[in-house]
From TrEMBL:
NCBIfam families: dephospho-CoA kinase. It is an enzyme of class 2 (transferase). It is found in: Cytoplasm. The keyword Transferase applies. This is Dephospho-CoA kinase. GO terms for molecular function: kinase activity. Keywords: ATP-binding, Coenzyme A biosynthesis, Cytoplasm, Kinase, Nucleotide-binding, Transferase. It comes from the Bacteria.
Length: 194
């Protein structure tokens, strides 16, 4: 079975495009959602995070103190890299284990940091969902009720879209003009042929 990754910067609509593939019966792994669960369940991650960031990382009930951790790492690139170095390998392995259990022509893994984390290296092909900066800003500001500056700050922590295009095997344009379904179906047919 082929292992396919799908990604895109914040506000490109990668989750929406992923839902189209999922509605066609494609096995689907949401790396960002799974990472949230794994950060609570994995003893390796728990020990690593407590070692690096302190016992405040988890509450007395065992829940991850997400806001506290986010405040600690998102303004400090070195701490963010440290966090990702603890979490990403475990999530990448979980996705590989999940893929081994799937059946069909291909499975799809959605991850916001597919290229940044290096997890694209364990995949056969990748799909990038792309949209203009203005459209991405508008979408995220409306969805998350945040300022333009806050969205730009989030975007600054992701690989630029132009750089991602150099890694992508397929690109889906989500500009609210070009129909999505024909693009998804064309990629689906190519993957079935492979």
């Amino acid at each position: 079975m082929l292992k396919i990754g799908i990604t895109g910067g914040i506000g490109t609509g990668k989750s929406f495009v992923s839902k189209i593939f999922k509605s066609m019966g494609i096995a689907f792994y949401d790396a960002d959602k799974e990472a949230k669960d794994i950060m609570v369940k994995s003893d390796i991650i728990r020990k690593g995070l407590i070692n690096e960031f302190g016992s405040e990382t988890y509450g007395e009930d065992g829940a991850l103190n997400r806001k506290w951790l986010a405040d600690k790492v998102f303004k400090d690139p070195e701490k963010l890299e440290l966090l990702n170095g603890i979490v990403h390998p475990v999530v990448i392995q979980d996705a590989l284990d999940w893929t081994e259990k799937q059946r069909g022509a291909y499975s799809l893994k959605e991850a916001a940091l597919l290229y940044e984390s290096g997890s694209y290296k364990s995949l056969d092909y990748t799909i990038l969902v792309a949209a203009s900066l203005d459209l991405r800003l508008k979408r995220v500001m409306k969805r998350d009720h945040v300022s333009k500056e806050e969205v730009l700050d989030r975007m600054s922590r992701q690989m630029p879209e132009e750089e991602k295009k150099g890694y992508a095997d397929f690109i889906i344009v989500n500009d609210e003009v070009t129909p999505l379904l024909p693009q998804v179906l064309a990629i689906h047919r190519k993957l079935l042929e492979i």
